[in-house]
Amino acid sequence: MTPPSTSQRPLDTSVLFDEARYLTDDYAPRRKVSFSRDDEHWPRIQALKDSIDSVTLDVLEWALEAAIDEGEAAVERTAVSTIVREQHDYRASLNTVDCNSVTRVSWAATADPIRNYYTLNEIHEGDVYLYNDIHESSGTIGHLPDFCVVVPIFSDGRLIGFAQVFGHCNDVGGKVSGSWPLTATTVFEEGIQVPPIKFYARGVRNEEAWKIILRNSRYPDDLRGDIDAFVGATRIIQRRVEELCRRYGTDVVEAAFYRIMDRCEEIVREEALPHIPDGEYVGEDFLENDGIELDKPIKIKLTVRKDREKIIVDFAGTDPQVPGPVNWVMDGRHYSKWLGGFVKAQVPGMIVNEGLTRVFKAYLPPRTVLSAEYPAAGADRMDCMLRMIGAYMAAMAKATNGQMVGDSQCIQLYGFYGRDKQGKDFLYREIFGAGSGGRPFADGTDTVDLVPDSKNLPTEFIEQRFPVIVHRVGMFADSGGPGAYRGGLGYLKDVEILVDGHFLTVSYRTIFSCFGVNGGLAGRSGGALINPGTPQEQHVLFKREAVPVKAGDVVRILTPGGGGWGDPLARITEWVRMDAVRGLVSVQSARDDYGVVLQAVDDKRRGYEVDEAATRTLRDTLRAARPPLKMINRGEHAEQLIRGGRITVSDFDYPAAFDEAAYVAAAGV
Amino acid sequence: MAWRIGVDTGGTFTDLVAVNEHTGQRFVRKTSSTPDDPSRAFTHGIRELLDEIGAGASDVSFISHGTTVATNAILESKYATLGLIVTQGYREMLEVGRQTVPGDFGDITWWLKPPRVVPLELIREAPGRLDFRGNELTPLDEAAVRAAARDFRDMGVDAIAVSFIHSYRNAVHERRARELILEEHPACFVSISSDVIREYREYERTLSTCLNTGLMPLVTSYLNNLERRLADEHIDARLFVMKSSGGIIRAAEMAPQPIAAVLSGPAAGIVTASYYGRAAGHPDLITIDIGGTSTDICLIDRGQPNMLTEGRIDIYNIKAPMIDMHTVGAGGGSIAWLAAGRSLRVGPQSAGAQPGPVCYGRGGTAPALTDAHIVLGRVSPYLLGGAIRLDGAAARRAIEQHVATPLGLSVEEAALGILDLATNNIAQGINVVSVKRGRDPRHYALMAFGGAGGLNACLVADALGIRTIVLPPAPGVTSAEGLLSTDVRSDRVVTDVQREDTLDITRLAREFSTVHAQVRGDLQREGFAADDTAVSAFADMRYVGQAYEVRVPITLLDDSLSEAAVRQAIKAFHRAHDDRFGYEYEGKQPVEIVNIGATGFGLFPRLKLAAMSRDDASWQGARREVRRGVFRGVGEVDLPVYERSLAPIAVPLDGPAIIEQYDATFVLEPGWRAELDAHGQIIVTQLAREV
After folding, report:
1. Which site among A263, A339, A464 would you substitute to test the B interface, given the most B Cβ atoms closer than 10 Å to its Cβ?
2. Residue B482 Cα distances to A301, A570, A639, A662, angstroms
3. Angle between the A220-248 and A54-78 helix axes, to the nearest 10 degrees?
């Protein structure tokens, strides 16, 4: 086994990482725009901040969270786009007047572009602001379908903050139906760009702008329904905050905003950071391509530098901005919030807000795929988002000596569009989850979505509305990465289209795999098959915006399995048997991947029994013949590319630290 | 034959109320529940009650029952092992579910999917397919159904659920499957999804059907048991069971649809609340039913609670008609804890009835809401006439250790903080049923009941700006009372998605006449003459593109559905949407009718509320003791405690004060004034605030 390289050795805990180098031109600014407060109220608010009693603070924190819940529930009940409503691709938040998020789901958009475009004197009660312009939104919105609505909140005659709701609308124009072009090379091909505008001025809607925006959508009724839902929801949040001001006093509520963020910062520093060993850890992951140059993977690389005061995530080594639409145009502040959400695992019940970004700091070199500049295309930035999480998890697997969850790819879209038998345009698009990664304490979960509260579409809904028949909805057997704890299974869904049209896929792990951790193997990749099992079978790889299909074609959608965790040859044999009886793992995979020999028995419920003696022998043989277990197992395709010098990783030989005795004891079987 | 008896079985107590049909005279009783066999406490309580009244078995005309048998079986996963037969291609439907991870971003890494109601090895597929209009695409493979039934029989599985795609439109395949199963496995309990709920969304319908099937053996034997025990007692009264919809149904009719009884008890409480609200001149009410682990909240407009077609029990979305109740995890047993070591939270974890709050002295160590009440002098150390004694010192120590010391507060400050947070949780729950639906809570009276309702009522009202509170005569047994003030109810619904611009009124009218006839048939079977029934119509509608519906009533002139009536209901939908969500699209976006349905009531003669007279009573005479109590903004004060049964009618009393009765305690906060009305309800109003 190769010892860990020097760059990944835990450091002396007295060492503090210096931030000076990130403040040079080698790095992009961590926050695109900032607003300082020097107004007459600020000294008073600051003084009050530290004197609020803790109970009042708790009540206000919880009341603000409830206001967000209420706003989000209103969106779910009334929005039209399935991505908003079923997939829950929308978020509400509350911002301070200087545009910091007070409430959870901290990666929600912020009000920065409103302050950037309008002076405080120009912002009035009754105004509603609207934007989706990725290059003019100060790094708060990442692709054009995300329309963001912002409402200023006034109390005692002064502006104290903003309520915000953004959501992913069905269609905002651009080169393809559904506005998720996969071959765009500038933002202009992706749809209408609305810079921050006063959508309502003192309560009066700008009907002319509204006409222009709706005219640019292929499904204007959907867009209108969504944006009206967002406006309604932000107003609910605004009213709730105003009521709190009446009950507790405006100063108290505003001071609480700042104290709640301070408290998040303190909790992250004092409760979460001690769980992560000080040191420097590298993580890498790859996008399959940018949609333009199909055989060129794109690397996301990050180095986590952790000391007792902070976590720095340095993205040096990440590939430059690309022509295709996978670029992400946000900033380090925003990525801190994306990745920082994962510290919650260590501190149940904590609310992650802007306070986190003072302790958990991401820095990016300029013009990388994660710090792309105008006029970069960004419709498919979700690819970067998911791989960034993968790279972070890989780094944390090393930081925790393998006590980290396996990789997953739990959001992808598949869809059909065309003209139905009545001659009307339709777009059936559905977001699919997949298998999550095996964990140090449990199997990954089958067919789940990364975004909380996301829902798939019922067959009985799909068939009512679109010209398709859904023949099968189930799981992709054997797709979960083998491990002591297996990766979750992806989807298998067979859809027959009843008219001629096009098939689209936004799918990312189609040749790469979700990596296994700490001896676990990689999961199977996903993809799609047109007319599977027939002589005309066609394998669809990568993401595609327009694959022609004919009436009667059946498309099989497969989503990837999660990476496994721990040595599969150690997996509890009874669990392998149960998976086989339930059809989740084949008898062949039980033998080849898990070394478990199963015998069919004449018992309808048990189905198989484990041949324990044969299993022991087989496992010994397999163990003797295999290479050392890896900490990060990226699967066959990535290994080929690494061996061929097409991609590089720092951890190819990094050994697993799997402890079989501890696993068996914890399994308690 | 003059007495009607309501029996509500809860986890700790079985509550009974008897009302004389002619005089309105009533008796109340609480007896310990017998969870191993709830029917024991049921008959034991009835016997005790009859002894107290001095009546015999033959004097009972009617018994109505609220039960948690179905709910508990779901919560504790104690339903029967069952098999499931689904459409080919859908074997993994329950595994896949809706792909949903609850909670917050990142929770996918640690969330564990709960076990499925039916494991994969007990699910079989049958070829046979309908399209969304109900037309057959592939005929049902009868041999496959028979083979599955035989498999289940051989495995010893005696309950089978059937759920086929699009069966809500056409139940023919499911009905045939049931016949085939019973031919192969005659002793089996079978439930088909189109009988459980005729609405689209296959996962939710299938899940409800599975739970229904799993509950059938248990509920059937429970109800049989009750009937047998009643027979043993020579009680020959009709036995009814309360449904989640707030209507009752003959026990024998309940057996095939136990899923309809999951909110049996709480629904009864709301029926009582609307009844007493009307009596008190407050038909517009927000009710809070605060129990040991949670608070059920309901909004009642013009004496009628809103109805839903689905709700959540534990981890399951249940599809069955139920009263629109919102439950928040705030009850007497809700535990106070420090999130991340420093932010005070109350609930949703609860000490429940076992071990209960620290003051119960049953081994609880985590401070609960009730512990805060006792520390502040709000609860008597003796409950239920001395049957339960509370340990205030232990409560104090627990709050000190777990909350006050870590936060640097006094014990009283910590206890007030716990009250504030619990109050806030309840107030936010009220916002969900009111403000979120376009209702201003300040325009409603608050009715508080349940064991702990009166302890928090004034605080909750203060938080929301509600100025009137009503406390019914027996807040601790409201559910049992509700069992006696309701009607037999039948709901039938069918899904047929139609756009307003291509409305096929003939088809819709035909479908309506089917559900209408079913409802009439249900009531007829219950023995109601046509004059004693009322049937109304409703439709669930949405704008094209939306996925959630709003239910609106359809006004009928006779028993048939006219196009004019539907058009009028569509207009009502626009108004309801605007009312609830703040906008409407009349003339801009077409409306889809999704479901059409009928609700029938078999009407019982109304019970009378007896007017009270207590000419000699006075607050002075009702005063029992004076305790020390602590209130926010006031500090420690002398707190007089009054006995409700001795309180005078129509004489005001200003807070702070405590009004105690056998089954509940009411805390009259400073700034509030209470008086009893002619029926003995306590009406509480907020005094004008000092400026």
Report:
1. A464
2. 65, 58, 69, 56
3. 160
SS3 of B334-398: the string is: EEEEEECCCEEEEEEEECCCCCCCHHHCCCCCCCEHHHHHHHCCCCCCEEHHHCEECCHHHHHHH
Backbone angles phi, psi at A339, to 5 degrees: -75, -35
Residues of chain A contacting B102 with CB distance shorter than 8 Å: 452-453
| Among candidate residues A110, A99, A88, A101, the one with its CA nearest the CA of residue A61 | A101
> B171: domain CATH number?
3.40.50
Q: Indicate whether B580 belongs to any domain.
A: yes
Taking the C-alpha atoms of residue A444 and residue A450, their distance in angstroms, rounded to an integer, is 12
Which residues in chain A (345-364) have CB-CB distances under 8 A to chain B? 345, 347-350
The runs of H, that is alpha helices, within B133-191 are 142-155, 172-184
Query: Which pair of tokens denotes residue A274?
Result: 């001690």
Shared domain check, B187 and B96: yes
Q: Do B200 and A464 touch (CB under 8 A)?
A: yes
Is B665 part of a structural domain of the chain?
Answer: no
Residue B537 belongs to domain with CATH number: 3.30.1490
Domain range annotation of chain A:
42-264, 401-567
The residue among B395, B421, B447 that closes a domain is B421
B110-136 pLDDT, tens per residue?
A: 888 988 999 999 999 999 999 999 999
- Cα–Cα distance measured from residue B87 to residue B90, given in angstroms and rounded to the nearest whole number: 6
Is residue B684 assigned to a domain? Answer: no
How much of chain B, in percent, has pLDDT values that exceed 90?
52
* A116-148 residues labelled b (16+ CB within 10 A) or e (exposed): bbbeeeebeeebbbbbbbbbbbbbbbbbbbbbb
Angstrom distances, CA of residue B98 to CA of A461, A490, B405, B536? 13, 13, 45, 34
Task: Look up the ipTM and state it.
Answer: 0.90
Same domain, B309 and B389: no
In this structure, the answer to whether residues B503 and B586 fall within a common structural domain is yes
**Residues A302-350 pLDDT 10s:** 999 999 899 999 999 999 999 999 999 999 999 998 888 777 767 766 7
Whether B505 and B595 share a structural domain: yes
Question: In B449-559, which residue ranges form alpha helices assigned H by DSSP?
Answer: 453-464, 478-482, 505-525
- The DSSP element (H or E) to which B685 belongs, if any, is strand B682-686
SS3 per-residue string spanning B392-412: HHHHHHHHHHHHHHHHCCCHH
Number of domains in chain B: 5
In contact, A295 and A289? CB cutoff 8 Å:
yes
Q: What is the pLDDT of residues B473-512, one digit of tens each?
A: 888 888 888 888 788 888 888 888 899 999 999 999 999 9
Given phi > 0 = left and psi -120 to 50 = alpha, else beta, which region is B126? beta
Residue of A434, A335, A512 lying closest to B96 (CA atoms)? A434
Q: Are strands B657-661 and B635-643 parallel, antiparallel or unpaired?
A: parallel
**Range(s) of the domain holding residue B441:** 265-325+424-479
To test the contact with chain B by mutation, choose from A77, A219, A271, A574 the residue with the greatest count of B C-beta atoms within 10 A, namely A77
B467 and B513 part of one domain: no
Statement to judge: residues B282 and B292 lie in one domain: yes
The pLDDT, as a whole number, for residue A390 is 95
Q: Report DSSP letters for B186-206, one per residue.
A: TT-EEEEHHHH---S-HHHHH
Domain boundary (B564, B585, B602) is at: B602
Give yes or no for a contact between A149 and A74, defined as CB atoms under 8 angstroms apart.
no
| Partner-chain contact A55 B99, CB within 8 Å | no
CB count, 10 Å around CB of B545? 22
Please report, for the domain that includes residue B294, its CATH number: 3.30.420
Check B95 against A447: CB less than 8 A apart.
Answer: yes
Chain B touched by A267 (CB under 8 Å)? yes
Do B130 and B35 reside in the same domain of the chain?
no
Same domain, B546 and B578: yes
